[in-house]
Amino acid sequence: MLRDARLVASKDLRVEATSRVLTTQVLPFALLVLILFGFGISPDQQVISGAGEGTERVAILEKVAPGLFWLAVLFSTLLAIGRSFAIESVDGNLDALRMAGLDPAGVFLGKMSAVLAELLVLELVVGLGCFALYGPPLAHPVLLVTTVLSATLGIAAAGTLYAALAAGLRVRDTLVPLLVLPVLAPVLLAATLATEAALFGPDGDGWPWALLLGAFAVLYTGAGILAFGTLVEES
Amino acid sequence: MGWEYVIPGYLIAAVAIGGYTLQMLRRGRALSARVPEERRRFLAEKADKT
Amino acid sequence: MNDPAPSQDAFESALAARTAPLHTGSKSTRVLGVLALVLLVSLLAFALVITPPEVSQRDSFRLLYLHVPSAIVSLYVAFAITLVGSIIYLRKQSVFWDLLAGAAAEVGVLFLGITLVTGMLWGKPTWGVYWQWDPRLTSTAVSFVLYAGYLAVRKLDMDPVVRSRRAAVLGIVSFLNLIIVRYSVQWWRGLHQGQTFDVADTQMDGVMLFTALLGVITMHVVFAWLVIHRFRVAWLEHQADEAGLDVALRERRAEGANV
Q1: Residue C6: exposure state from Cβ atoms within 10 A (0-12, 13-18, ≥19)
Q2: Which of A26, A38, A48, A112 could serve as a FRET partner for A82 with CA atoms 20 to 30 Å apart?
Q3: Residue B39, domain extent
Q4: What pTM does this model have?
Q5: Is the ipTM of this complex over 0.90?
Q6: Domain residue spans of chain A
């Protein structure tokens, strides 16, 4: 299973290395979204932060930077998982993989790992963009890294599972967002709160949410391993 | 106090359930004509049911 | 249009035999339907006329006699049936459970829609706004979209067996997700504020409690009636599909014989 997973993951990453669809199309898209958020929420708008003596005026953009970061990641995820299955639908590739005797669970893990790797690279760039454009502080780097890793694992697992559900359909591009976004809603919620704690502190507020993200990742990786074979199997 | 919200609430629910029911029954009638009678009912396959 | 087509012969013999009527009703569902109507009328009478207004929420409280039962039926009964049906379908490939799972989900989404609308209409006089980021209302909205997605998959134009299998996987994962959404949203709002509205706080006398119970029973009966009929329609759809497939196969064979 793990050998098959490695095979599929390296295949997907090699396809990306030659086609560069994600780096030349999805990554610029994600950065554009960050700029558009700035247009939608004026950079001059401020909120009063803190209570009692220590109140200060903070730009809304800085305050909501965690949520905007994860929204940009979610939208990019839709494109990344769409791409992940678009490269399979050509010439019935998914069938070919099955015929070649590859373990479906391995194929799932492979595709998921490739999406995970791609998303992590994207998040690094988008994250740097967020710090540059919105200028939030960074109080707890360890919590931030843990949050990003566990949230992305969950996003990649659930995304791959749901993209497989719509694999090979003409309506895939419109169906996948409807299916995936409600599922990822709790991830957006937990990741935003954990990231808020990581940026502004205190980190004690963030760890339970990071834990929830970890649980989500384990749950959906498990569900994907169990269900992927059933999903891609033809009648 | 509050009737201006209660009435629309019950009306919307009635229209939703009623409309759904009508559309479903109509569809059932239309489909029945297209299916051979011995296959119209799930239970008919196992036992004859009036 | 005087020449009787063969389908019309079948039509007439069906009427004569009376084994399978040309609609989705039956003796038992007619009894259930009458019961549902009687319950609905009495629920309206109790909820809108007989019960007194609640002490603090006044008449807007009457929306809850509809809101709470439809929430219970959709979230605890309908989607649980979908879950069970999906699991059994994946194990036994039983068409019955597949169609039942779909029928329950569809009626469940309808009831969830009613839950949302009545919840918002109740919120306006109670909270002053239609939408409060109340944990239950918020997670209900997400669940609504979740199962709307499930219904969208069931309606896809594709191989029926593959579609049923994918829908079954979705039916199982959706329930898992329903639980995750409910608890994470509750946890999220719990940190910011307490429960906006606590049922235990309201003053309910005997008649009001009876009406609440009547609402729960009524919505269950209505749900059962709707699901049985929806199942029969789904069964007919399934049979019509198969009949269409038979015709196509026969034509294909005839073509093959000619070549």
Answers
A1: exposed
A2: A38
A3: 3-45
A4: 0.87
A5: no
A6: 2-232
